[in-house]
Structure formats: structure tokens, C-alpha cells
Amino acid sequence: MIREEDVYKIGRLGKTHGVKGELSFLFDDDVFDRVDADYLVLEVDGILVPFFIEEYRFKSDSNAIMKLEGIDSQERARELTGCDVYFPRALAPCDDEAMSWSEIVGFAIVDAATHTTVGTIASVDDSTLNILFELEDGTLIPAPEELITDVDRQAKTITIELPDGLLDINK
Fold first, then answer.
1. Is 94 within 8 Å of 107 (Cβ atoms)?
2. Tens of pLDDT, residues 148-158
3. What does the alpha-carbon distance between residue 86 and residue 50 come to, in Å, rounded to a whole number?
4. Of the residues 9, 35, 78, 156, which has the maximum number of CB atoms within 10 A of its CB?
5. HSE toward the beta carbon, residue 123, CA cutoff 13 A
6. How confident is the model at residue 98 (pLDDT cuts 50, 70, 90)?
7. Three-state SS across the chain?
8. Is residue 122 exposed (0-12), middle (13-18) or buried (19+ Cβ within 10 Å)?
9. Separation of CA 78 from chain center
């Protein structure tokens, strides 16, 4: 059984493409291509299910046409439309430099000064040069590389030097 903590979300399946079971795959992270993954995990009716990749081709930087094994008709593909797509953490690159923003969602933020957990990353805003971690309580934490002192994949923590008074802003 695949557990939620063993995967991280990389995208969502869109509409069907053609009649042979292909689907539009809208992704935030192209890790499936960078590590040449054999399978992806889909959330189908609340259950995480592995699907082997038959083939895919990129349409853009965030969209691919994907063909999954065993999905050979438009009707079968339509059943998967809208499913969230996850990537197994065990297959992700081990190099911390190659970590993606999608992979760190769910990591805890630890204050380097006090060694206390501040919160858990709910999303990452990388739409500008100033990267922001949005915590589950809505707090925004600036995340420039020079403030990050440690990333522990095993413990799923990121230690960061928080600017003085930052946590008091949302109180």
C-alpha cells in the first residue's frame, strides 16, 4: 500500500487526448523525466495507485501528453481525468541541489536560532525571484538560499535563519 508520506504531488491529469487512451498531464515538476521513472502514482477515488508509463511527449514546459499502460481507450482515460499525480520520494534524485519545490511541500520549517518547528510548508510561491514558503496556517516565510542552513530529507525539515520579528507579523 502506498502511503501519502511516501509520495509528493507533481501535477494533475487533464482531458483525454485522442481515442487511444492518452491524457493531458499538467505538471509542476518534471522529475518523472529527469530520473526516467517507470511509473507515477495517481490518486483514484482517494486511493494511491501506481500506473506504469507507456510513453509521453512534451507539449510545453508544464504540459505533456501521457500514455499509461492498460489505458487503451478514450473511455478508460476519461475515468482518470482530474486525478492528482504523485511521484515516489524514493525515486527522487538524492542530490539536494536537484530537489524541486514540489518535493518540499509537507516539510517542517525549523528556526535556526531557537531550533523550534515554526510550521509545515503547504505550498511554495516561486512566481517571482523572491521565493516564499506558505505554511499551513497561512504564514509566509521568505526563502532565499542564503537563509537556508540545512535541508534534511529523512526528517523532512528545512532549517532557516528567520528574520527577527517575522513570526510576529501574523499575530
1. no
2. 899 888 888 99
3. 9
4. 9
5. 6
6. low
7. CCCHHHEEEEEEEEEEECCCCEEEEEECCCHHHHCCCCEEEEEECCEEEEEEEEEEEECCCCEEEEEECCCCCHHHHHCCCCCEEEEEHHHCCCCHHHCCHHHHCCCEEEECCCCCEEEEEEEEECCCCCCEEEECCCCEEECCHHHEEEEECCCCEEEECCCCCHHHCCC
8. middle
9. 23
* pTM (2 d.p.): 0.71
User: Of 157, 164, 165, which is closest to residue 133 (Cα–Cα)?
Assistant: 157
> What confidence tens digit (pLDDT) does each residue in 31-83 have?
898 888 899 999 999 999 999 999 999 999 899 999 999 999 999 999 999 99
Single-letter residue type at 153: R
Q: State how beta strands 47-58 and 7-17 pair.
A: unpaired
Whole-angstrom distance, CA of residue 151 vs CA of residue 85? 24
Question: Which of 135, 158, 136 shows the shortest CA–CA distance to 147?
Answer: 158
Beta bridge partners of 53: 68
In this structure, the number of other CB atoms found within 10 A of the CB of residue 142 comes to 13
Does residue 131 contact residue 125 with C-beta atoms inside 8 Å? yes
Residue 87: pLDDT band with limits 50, 70, 90: very high
